């Protein structure tokens, strides 16, 4: 599959490994290090959360799911809660200022320095707001590429009691994904930061494609 990625014009591992900093050792506390940020993109049900859990386990990243942060904000009865809930029910995107604030707070309050930011940025506006507020872009971007019918099947059989895992909302989320998230994916492809992963197969088969992206963190 690395060959496939290279053939598709994505950077191959060899080029990548010479370019990123190897994890440094020696007496620096994690918080003093420059954060290493991975954005994890893909449509609803493409398997982002599932693969993030494996990356956490294998490479010690901290997983920040934008959707989870927003759902926590709803259940904490914050002033934005009802706006967030309604937006999620409709399958639309929450205003970037809200989401970026939650991500920033989570990064700052965490001792770790390597992060997976899952389900973000979902729009060019998300991306630009993050860059303005945080000051830098991501180090690497994963994109789980999954056919729509597979995503629908997975979302409708995901049993987490989510208000947005129903056929009507999923249809809207897929539309939003195509119109708003694909431009972000194209942007990072152009930057040479995107790793496209074929998201069809067993969890293990998909993780095999993810492994080389993080090999220097072992
Ligand atoms: N490779 C896979 N094959 C089949 N089902 C999967 C696979 N990976 C994840 N799932 C299931 O599909 C659903 C959506 O996965 P999830 O990781 O929550 O995706 P996302 O975070 O992208 O929406 C979950 O119920 C999960 O258990
Ligand atoms: N950057 C983001 C991420 C999520 N949201 C909202 C809108 C999304 O449909 C919901 C759910 O996102 P989540 O990443 O948990 O969904 P999936 O794991 O892709 O199924 O949250 C958002 O508005 N902005
Ligand atoms: Mg998810």
UniProtKB/TrEMBL annotation:
EC number: 2.7.4.3
Keyword Chaperone on entry: no
Annotated TM spans: none
SUPFAM superfamilies in alphabetical order: P-loop containing nucleoside triphosphate hydrolases (SSF52540)
Keywords: ATP-binding, Cytoplasm, Kinase, Nucleotide-binding, Nucleus, Pyrimidine biosynthesis, Signal, Transferase
GO process annotations (BP): pyrimidine nucleotide biosynthetic process
A Pfam family per the record: ADK
Catalysis performed (reactions): UMP + ATP = UDP + ADP
Keyword Cytoplasm: yes
Family: Belongs to the adenylate kinase family.
Protein name: adenylate kinase
């Amino acid at each position: 599959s690395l060959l496939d990625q290279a053939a598709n014009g994505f950077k191959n591992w060899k080029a990548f490994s010479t370019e990123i900093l190897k994890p440094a050792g020696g007496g620096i506390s994690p918080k003093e290090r420059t954060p290493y940020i991975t954005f994890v993109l893909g449509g609803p049900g493409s398997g982002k959360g599932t693969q993030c859990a494996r990356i956490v386990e294998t490479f010690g990243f901290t997983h920040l799911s934008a959707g989870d942060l927003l759902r926590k904000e709803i259940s904490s009865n914050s002033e934005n809660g009802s706006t967030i809930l309604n937006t999620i029910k409709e399958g639309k995107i929450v205003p970037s200022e809200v989401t970026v604030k939650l991500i920033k707070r989570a990064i700052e309050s965490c001792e770790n320095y390597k992060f997976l930011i899952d389900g973000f940025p979902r729009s060019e506006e998300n991306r630009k707001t993050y860059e303005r507020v945080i000051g830098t872009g991501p180090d690497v971007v994963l994109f789980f590429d999954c056919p729509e019918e597979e995503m629908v099947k997975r979302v409708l059989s995901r049993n987490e009691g989510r208000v947005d895992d129903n056929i009507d909302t999923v249809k809207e989320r897929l539309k939003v994904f195509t119109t708003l998230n694909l431009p972000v994916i194209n942007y990072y492809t152009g930057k040479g930061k995107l790793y496209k992963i074929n998201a069809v197969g067993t969890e293990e088969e998909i993780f095999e494609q993810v492994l080389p992206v993080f090999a220097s963190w072992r």
